[in-house]
Write a structure and sequence with these properties.
heterodimer; A: mainly alpha; 2 domains; 9 helices; B: 376 residues; 19 strands
Chain lengths: 174, 376
C-alpha cells in the first residue's frame, strides 16, 4: 500500500534515528543547520536504497556512511581553495562573567577546521574508528587519514580551547 | 584521554535538536525535488539531441557501430551542426512537455536492439516500448523491460517493487558555463562482448557490487554511449550475473577515436584533481589533433587487460577511475566524451563517438599540459 511516509519501515527508521543523525551531521560540518541538511540529503539516498536495506540491511550505517563520504567529498572539492593563514585573527578577550559554553567553543573549533580534517577527527575520536577503518570508509589511504588527523590537531592547538587542551593532555599522558 | 575528547564532542551536540519536527515529509520532498532536477537536466539534453539529429546527424552515424575498418574515423563523426543556442538545463519549455528524448529501440527475436546493442529479454519478461503515459511501480508488472518509460526506478511508490529493466536515451552530461567546479569521481568501463563500452560512475559501481551483498539489486544508470542508451534495473541479485552477461553488441570493427571536427571548449576531469576548462581554441584544437594521431587501435579481445579486476561475475572493469575529456559547444552542450584510462599497464581511451585506442606513456599529463600549461 502506498503511504505518504514512504515504504514500510522507512518512516519509523527516520523518526527513531533522525536526531542522532543530525547530531552526527553537526559534528561532521561543525554547524547545526548544515548538519541537519547533510542528514536529510543522506536520508534521500537511504530512501532510494530502502528496499535493499530493509529489513535485513543496516539503514543507519548506510546513512552515516553516505554522510561521512559527502562531508569528505565536500572537503575534496573545496580544500584546494582554502589558504592556510600563518596567523589566526585576533580573538575577543574572554569575558570572565560569560557562562562557559563548551558546546559553542567545541563547535567553533570544529567549524574552523578544513572539512576533511574535521571529518577524520570526528571519525577517529567520536566514532572511535581506527585509521584503517576510516581509510576504508572514505576510500583513501591511511597516510591521508594520518596527515589530516595530524593537521587537525595542530590547528586545534593553535586555536586553544577545550579540544586543544584535551589533545595536549592526551599527548602528555600517552 | 581519547575518552575526554569524545565527551567534549558529545557535549558539543548534546543539546542539538533538529529543526524539522516531521523529518519524513521533508526527506520525501527532497527526493521528489532531486528527481525533478534529474528529469529537467535530461530534458534539456534532449532538446539539443533532437536538434543535433535534425541538423546533421552528428552522432547517429558514429553510434551505429558499423563503420568499416580502415575508414577515416573522424569521418564517422559526421558533419558539424551549426552553433546551437544556449540551453539552460533546469528550464522546461512548458508544463506538458515530455522532458527527454527517446531511444530508438526495436524488439527482434526476443531481444531489444539499440544501435547495435543487443539486450536479450529474460525468459517470461514482457517488453513495453514507449507507453504513452508515465508509469509508477504500481502499474508495472513483474518482469518488465521498459523502453522510454517516464519513470525513475526508485521503487518507492509501491511496497512490492517489480523486477524491471529500463532502457532510455543517453546523452553526455551537460555542463553549462559558469557553474562551479565539481569533484569528478571518474568513469569505470566494462567492455561488452562485441566491443561496446559500458560506463559506470563510482556510485553505480557500488550499486552493481551491492548485488553480492544484498538480495535485491538496484542500479540507476549504466551508460552505453555507442548505443546512445542507458540501462537501469531492479531485480533479484541472483538474476544479475545472468542478465549482465547476456548484454552484448554487434561486433565493432576496431577503429581510431571518433571525434568532432572541432570543438570550442574542452573540460578535462581527473579523479582527485580540479577539473580543467579550456576555451582556448588553439589549445583544444591541439588536443583534438593529438587524439586523432593515436593509431594504436585496441583490437578485439585485447581488453580487459590481464590485471583487470572483476566487478561482479560476468563483468570485469577494463578501466577504472578513468579521466574524461568532454568536448562541447560554448553553451556547454557536449559533442563527445573521451574516457581515458592512464594506468601504467592498461592505458587506453574510448570515445563516446566510437573508437578505442591504446595510449602512449604520459598521455594524460600531455593533455593537461596542452589545456592548462603549467598544470602538468
Amino acid at each position: 500500500m502506498t503511504t505518504p511516509t514512504g515504504p514500510a519501515g522507512f518512516a519509523d527508521f527516520v523518526n527513531a534515528r533522525y536526531a542522532a543523525l543530525v547530531r552526527h551531521g553537526t559534528l561532521l560540518t561543525g554547524d547545526r543547520g548544515h548538519g541537519e541538511d547533510l542528514a536529510q540529503e543522506a536520508l534521500v539516498k537511504t530512501y532510494r536504497a530502502w528496499y535493499r536495506l530493509h529489513p535485513d540491511g543496516d539503514g543507519e550505517a548506510y546513512t552515516r556512511q553516505v554522510m561521512v563520504r559527502a562531508a569528505w567529498r565536500a572537503g575534496r572539492r573545496l580544500w584546494r581553495r582554502e589558504i592556510p593563514t600563518g596567523q589566526l585573527p585576533e580573538r575577543r578577550e574572554a569575558d570572565p562573567y560569560e557562562p562557559r559554553d563548551t558546546a559553542r567553543l567545541v563547535l567553533d573549533a570544529l567549524r574552523a577546521l578544513p572539512s576533511q580534517q574535521r571529518v577524520v577527527l570526528v571519525m577517529r575520536y567520536w566514532a572511535g574508528l581506527s585509521e584503517q577503518e576510516i581509510a576504508a570508509q572514505l576510500g583513501c589511504s591511511t597516510g591521508t587519514v594520518k596527515s589530516r588527523s595530524s593537521r587537525a590537531i595542530s590547528a586545534l592547538r593553535r586555536m586553544d580551547g577545550p579540544l586543544a587542551r584535551a589533545f595536549d593532555l592526551s599527548e602528555t599522558s600517552a | 584521554m581519547t575518552e575526554r575528547i569524545r565527551s567534549l564532542l558529545d557535549a558539543a551536540v548534546a543539546e542539538t535538536r533538529p529543526r524539522a519536527a516531521a523529518p519524513v515529509p521533508e526527506v520525501l520532498r527532497r527526493s521528489r525535488a532531486a528527481r525533478r532536477r534529474r528529469l529537467a537536466t535530461a530534458g534539456a539534453a534532449g532538446v539539443v539531441a533532437v536538434a543535433l539529429l535534425a541538423t546533421g546527424g552528428l552522432v547517429a552515424a558514429a553510434r551505429t557501430g558499423t563503420t568499416p575498418a580502415g575508414t577515416d574515423p573522424s569521418a564517422a563523426a559526421g558533419p558539424i551542426p551549426p552553433p546551437l543556442p544556449s540551453v539552460r538545463p533546469t528550464v522546461l519549455p512548458s508544463p506538458g512537455w515530455r522532458p527527454w528524448p527517446k531511444v530508438a529501440a526495436t524488439v527482434v527475436d526476443g531481444t531489444v536492439r539499440v544501435h547495435g546493442l543487443i539486450l536479450p529479454v529474460p525468459d517470461g519478461w514482457q517488453v513495453h516500448n514507449d507507453p504513452p503515459q508515465p508509469l509508477t511501480d504500481c502499474q508495472i508488472s513483474q518482469g518488465s523491460v521498459l523502453i522510454n518509460v517516464d519513470h525513475a526506478p526508485s521503487g518507492m511508490e509501491c511496497p512490492q517493487v517489480p523486477a524491471q529493466i529500463h532502457v532510455n536515451r543517453w546523452q553526455p552530461s551537460v555542463y553549462p558555463p559558469g557553474l562551479p567546479a565539481k569533484f569528478h569521481e571518474g568513469i569505470s568501463e566494462v567492455v561488452l562482448p562485441g566491443g561496446y563500452p559500458a560506463w559506470l560512475t563510482d556510485n553505480e559501481v557500488n550499486n552493481v557490487r551491492a548485488s553480492q551483498r544484498y538480495e535485491w539489486s538496484a542500479v540507476s544508470q549504466v551508460q552505453l554511449p555507442w548505443a546512445g542508451a542507458a540501462l537501469a534495473w531492479e531485480m533479484s541479485s541472483g538474476s544479475v550475473p545472468g542478465f549482465i552477461s547476456s548484454i552484448t553488441s554487434e561486433p565493432v570493427p576496431a577503429r581510431r577515436l571518433g571525434l568532432p571536427d572541432n570543438a570550442p571548449t574542452a573540460r578535462l576531469t581527473i579523479r582527485d584533481q580540479e577539473q580543467i576548462d579550456s576555451t582556448d581554441a588553439s589549445s583544444v584544437s591541439r588536443v583534438l589533433d593529438r587524439l586523432r594521431e593515436l593509431d594504436q587501435v585496441v583490437q578485439d579481445g585485447e581488453l580487459p587487460c590481464a590485471s583487470a579486476p572483476e566487478l561482479v561475475p560476468g563483468w570485469r572493469l577494463a578501466g577504472k577511475d578513468m579521466a574524461s575529456l568532454t568536448l562541447s559547444y560554448p553553451s556547454g552542450m557536449p559533442q563527445a566524451v573521451v574516457a581515458i584510462s592512464s594506468t601504467d599497464d592498461c592505458a587506453f581511451a574510448t570515445s563516446s563517438l566510437g573508437g578505442r585506442v591504446w595510449l602512449p606513456p604520459g598521455f594524460l599529463a600531455e593533455l593537461r599540459g596542452l589545456l592548462a600549461p603549467g598544470a602538468r
